[in-house]
Design a protein that fits this description.
This protein is mostly helical. The protein is about 60% helix and about 0% strand. It is globular, with a radius of gyration of 10 Å.
């Protein structure tokens, strides 16, 4: 899974509370949440 896919997964989970697209997840506070998702994914590996 590449970084873009991780961001998309993060957006899908966050979409329930925020209307966000994968293109926009890299900017604003969403990037912090996406980074947490990435770390969690890396720990699972």
């Amino acid at each position: 899974m590449n970084g873009d896919a991780i961001y998309c997964v993060a957006v899908k989970r966050c979409r329930r509370s925020r209307k966000t697209r994968c293109q926009h997840v890299q900017e604003g506070g969403d990037v912090q949440m996406a980074q947490r998702m990435k770390v969690t994914y890396e720990l699972k590996e």
